[in-house]
Amino acid sequence: MNRLATDSACQPADLPALHAQAFPMLTPALIDRAASHGEIISVPAGTVLLKSGECEAAFYIVLEGYAEVLECEPGGAMHSLLMHRDGEFTGSLDLFTDRPNAVTVRADSPSRLLRISRAALAQLLLTERELADVVLRAFMLRRIGYLRQRPYGGAILRSAMPPGEEDSVLDLTVIGGGPAGLAAASYAASEGLQTLLVGGSLCGPDALREDVLRGFPGTITGLCGGGLLRRAEVQSRRFGSHVLPGRTATAFDEACYPYRVWLDDGQMIETRSLIVATGMQKGETPQTAGDANTAWLDGCLDTDDRGYIHTGRAAAGSMQARAYESSQPGVFAVGAVRAGSDKHVLASIAEGAAAVRVVHRFLDASAH
């Protein structure tokens, strides 16, 4: 198998830019546009805004004061990860999933904050594209960089190898660099899976073309830019992951296991599981969707007549299939490419994140 290639332009020198994008300061104009979607609250120092392990969550913009983000260490002590100041905001991709809060957030001083509920945030991001670009970029990068902040080390990779050796078979390959694919790769990498993200039809030179974006209602243009993926690669490299933003998949071999995927540069990837997040082609009008981007699968999966992948019980011959799992065990579909999905950006992010849980269950079962 060819060794994974990476973009040499992405070097550790990009880390200051990564931090600026993961923890941006909102302009007064953006805060004003968000204000009608929430309420301004004043809290004393020590007030817990979000509690680790609970599902109740909200989005906070710090107007005055400080909001501290803490993580519970294995022994129960709380460790400070970072401090948000005026103009910065709390939150991560977990706001769009059913996962419990991963961290605790508390006011470190008497503070004024703009509180926006989970539902109101979803509506805000769908109507305010400039704000959505800033927030979703930050959420993606925070998830990818999460382990770097931990005081007690990163997650244990499932494919543990002796020092100096590398397992050439990946735990997970994600095909497609749109919102669903980015979310899936972010969660998988941060949870210790050896992950490869291959940029799909929504990335690359055509990412910002309006006719492409028409086929994906709610897409935020900045999510697919090469700059975001390059910065994501800086972090993902640190715990055994790779990003190939300029590549696309051309063929899939389901007849052997681990599965094999060929890329447009001739590389062949071996992987224990696969998430397809290649989206859909543009429709004839902005209101219509085109066919799914699944021609490269060459009929290996059960799809409808427009190429959208059936999953779960809807997949032919797969009465026992897990959620998001296709007719091929260990091959999953998320986002717009999945038959019956809600085709907008926030739903795609949620599916990408949720599918990683199912990938863990498949890998655990296949290991035994």
Draw up the topology in text:
Blueprint: H1 15-22, H2 28-35, E1 39-43, E2 48-50, E3 58-64, E4 67-72, E5 78-84, E6 104-107, E7 111-117, H3 118-127, H4 129-144, E8 172-175, H5 179-190, E9 195-198, H6 210-213, H7 226-237, E10 242-244, E11 249-253, E12 259-263, E13 268-271, E14 274-276, E15 280-282, E16 289-292, E17 331-333, H8 345-367
Parallel strand pairs: 8-9, 8-14, 9-10, 14-17
Antiparallel strand pairs: 1-7, 2-6, 3-7, 4-5, 4-6, 11-12, 12-13, 15-16
Structure explained in plain terms:
InterPro entries: cNMP-bd_dom, cNMP-bd_dom_sf, FAD/NAD-bd_sf, FAD/NAD-binding_dom, Ferredoxin-NADP_redctase_2, RmlC-like_jellyroll. The chain is α/β, with parallel strands linked by helices and 368 residues long. It folds into 2 domains: 15-148, Jelly Rolls (Sandwich), CATH 2.60.120; 172-366, FAD/NAD(P)-binding domain, CATH 3.50.50. 25% of the residues lie in helices and 21% in strands. It is built from 8 helices and 17 strands. Residues 1-18, 147-165 and 200-226 have low confidence and may be disordered.
Which sheet architecture does the biggest sheet show? 5 strands, parallel
Lateral strand order in the biggest sheet = 10-9-8-14-17
- At the third CATH level, what is the topology name of the largest domain? FAD/NAD(P)-binding domain
CATH architecture of the largest domain: 3-Layer(bba) Sandwich
Secondary structure tally: strands: 17
| CATH H-level superfamily of the largest domain | FAD/NAD(P)-binding domain
Rounded mean pLDDT score = 77
Number of domains: 2
The Rg value, from CA coordinates, equals 20 Å
Shape, principal axes of CA atoms: globular
Characterize the quaternary organization of these chains. Answer: single chain
N-C termini distance: 25 Å
- What CATH first level of the largest domain would be assigned? Alpha Beta
How would you spell out the order of helices and strands? HHEEEEEEEHHEHEHHEEEEEEEEH
Q: Helical region count?
A: 8
